[in-house]
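Input sequence (118 aa), recorded before submission:
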Amino acid sequence: MQKWIMSGLFFAACAFAVVLMFTLPGKAEVAEENKPTMPEVQLDAAGAEAIVKANCITCHGDQLQGGVGPSLQQEGGKHDVGEIFTIVTKGRGQMPSFKDKLAPEEIANVAMWLAEKK
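Predicted structure, token format:
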């Protein structure tokens, strides 16, 4: 009787391992998920400023001088546009992710606008 139970458990474990092998994401999918792709957009400075005023000044200040969050007045000198896009999309440290609050095109516009601040 014990042999039947043990062989049944072994078969279940093997089946579970096979299912996991085909359903877990691979390295490529994980890498793509970790680095969001920035869409191609034209810089709209007025639109970016409006988005920043509506979403960012609470933590970064009305002149981007910093407060709860760091100063963004010279953000372009610290990070390139892709890095800024990833930070705003995914969040970092105490900064929340904005991927559910802003469209990727809006985030890209803000990233391009901030990248010019050096």
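Checked by second reader. Helices lie at 2-23, 27-34, 45-55, 57-60, 81-90, 104-115.
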